[in-house]
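Quick check before the chapter quiz. The format below is the same one you will see on the exam, so make sure you can read both the input and the output lines.
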Amino acid sequence: MTQIERTDPSHSVNPDAGWDALAADGSVVRIRPLRADDEAALDAMNQRVSDRSIYLRFFGISRSLANEHSHHLTRNHDGHVALVAEYGDRIVGVASYEPLRTGEAEMAFLLDDAVHGRGIGTLLLEHLAAVARDHGIQRLRADTLAENAPMLRVFAASGFEQVRRLDSGVVELVLDTAYRAATLDRMADRERAAADRSLRRVFAPGSVAVVGASRKSGGIGHEVLHNLAQGNYTGELYAINLRADRIGDVVAYPSILAVPGPVDLAVIAVPAAQVYDVLAECGRKGVAGAVILTAGFSELGTAGQQAQRAILEVARRHSIRLVGPNCLGLVNTDPAVRLNASFAEVTSVPGTLAIAAQSGAVGIAVLDHAGRVGLGISEFVSLGNKVDVSGNDLLLHWWHEPRTDVIGLYLESFGNPRKFGRLARLVGRTKPILVVKGGRSAGGRRAGASHTAAAATPDTAVDALFAQSGVLRMDTVEELVDTARVLAGRPLPRGRRLAVIGNAGGAGVLAADAAGRLGLEVPELSQALQTELSTMTGAVGPGNPVDLGAAASPATLAHAVRAVIASDEVDAVLVCYAATRAGRVEATYEAISSAVDGSRLPVVVNCLGAPDAAPQIVLADGGKLPVFPFPESAVRAHAHAVRYAEWRARPQGVEPELSGTDPDGALAVARTFLDQNSDGGWARPLQAEQLLQCAGVTTLRTASAHTVEQAVAAARQSGFPVAMKTAAEGVLHKTDVGGVRLGLTDAREVGFAYDEIVSATGDPQVVVQAMAPAGIELVIGMVRDPLFGPVLMAGSGGILTDLLADRQWRGLPLTDLDAAEMIRSLRCAPLLAGYRGAKAADEPAVLDVLHRIAWLAETLPEIAELDINPLIAGPTGVVAVDVRIRLTPSTAELDWHSRHLRQP
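Here is the expected output.
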């Protein structure tokens, strides 16, 4: 049931035209569905490939057979599926499968000889397997000649589970299309390597040309050239200017084509109307990457969007990686490179924080604040409009980048959020990812929607994504830099226990209060340690916080810190120091350094009343302790480090295998409804109940009625007592309109209830159910976000749903740990666990429902909203009492092959 972004390319373009992916050599390849007008291009490839390639594919040297197959793929419509790979303006590969029997198909591949060894066959296999899996194909078969070593290597390296049989020189391969852990790991590793190769000459270019470098200061091109030259860039530097021979000490040329040597990176600062032509020249020159500083593209509306698509297309034809447009530039502080290809006035020192910012102004703010607090930068990228290089690319690039310890991102939008979440889970296992996400508006709630959709704000999906992927969400840029200071190069906390030591009792109290609010513990120290602190330091408050008194000397402070570290009673230490005449700040810093040297315990420092003091303490081993001006900011940054350490230490979780599901039945119910309601809408109660049953969720038996006689008959068949609810179309919150009656014990009460409900709603349609068993009321729901896909909700149900707003959200894929965290993080969790002697609810059954709703959301992209309210959780199981499901004929989040290839 694992969901992965099917094509999962590094860069998406128009989904109807396919997706762009990175080949093993870092070049850009487009994978898309085969079209009827591709036959001539396929025939041309058939003519280009060698006789041996034809033989290995068709078991004979017959190009006419190859052309017949091209005709079959483009003209016949017998259930087969075909994908092509485009490189530049040519089709260089085709992959297809032909259905054999239920759940099985035969696959075949042909690649242009010119692209062998570039990993294009692997990309086609991954995409084809994804399409097959979506169409219910569990196994792909292929008969391959034993001498076809290159194709056998593609299959062997794919990560998909395989079964091989060798017979008469033919290897029969059977691939399981399921995404297993090994498959995902290999895909991620291949993608990381490809992204690294494609960006290598962008971040560490051997030569840079600034196109549009003016002779006068103040122009963007001139300032970038100045920063590169003054920063002592280690490679060859060129200026491109039609009317100058030199700009400062840099040689100038009239065009990039006139530069005598190779150019790895072009920094473009010409008017927007000239960017396309400049990029075309860069392509002819063999430039690997371009930073487009120029504004005037998608941020200006339709015309700008068209111009932006055009520059992306020309870049794709030449495999040029683009940063921007409308950006500040990029920086690499590596002493071997010293690249400052930006027009920012801030100069960054080398360090271990990598930063990407969608906003140039925010990027400058990050660089400025980091510099003032002594935090060095490894690399900085201003993303701008993100036409190509995105946050996802940078996660891949920084994943194994040795100079980067912490990754910081400022994002205003996600181009591919599900891929971001998948990559963040992988990268975050070794490097923390800190994100400031702009646009946290709570607007956009829809009146009359399900409880789930009404509760889903634009920020809900982001929080769910970050919670599952270990991303630390920061509220401000300052918070991001503060947290990076704590995490950069320092050991992670082993737990939540914090000791607060200092010479300022008030600061210690503020720190302890902040720790409590943020879920940290400030434990009481053992009596032995308190006695030691009193004897050794004369502490006036040897508890925790440890108050050493205003007159405490640096040596006293060092003794206290050393004793607490050695005690093993806490997981981290906060030193709160108020500058006084009793001790110089420099001497105090030296004392703290001597106490901490050699320790693996995290230590942060708060220095009050010394605005000119250094923002960090340098240790003997070269490490640095961050110094904060206020105790609360120090505790907040440390709390983020604790959260990250806990996430990293926990198991990754697995997606449970579900039994008792009926995907064909669920699809049949959805098709029946949509055949009758072409624009979609809310499913009838019985249809919603059927969909839950197809997912294996237990529901109360429901009967529909349109007259009082039918209602009475349904009640008698169900057995008294019963509940009656309106089934009026468009009524979602039935209680609010007087559409619910409970505990009806005989036919007379059923008749009265029917008349009252019809009078209140003006609609004769009702449903009759047996009364639900006693238990805890929960709400389980799903809403399909157009960018993030399905987002699941669990919370307090019944009449408490909106009153308490007790909810947790997660996206897909949903692991067992994700589901457990959702339920155990609810405020009503103590009720489920058996509050004050009550019987505990069946938590495994609740978790099972969550996984089954996740399965249903993944299986049926037609489901736009789903709401089970209430789900009754009792000691021996759960039952869905009321369910609402909204179906749509299509959803914006469907991937390209589902839109093109899904059977009607």
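If your answer matched, good. The longest strand covers residues 90-101.
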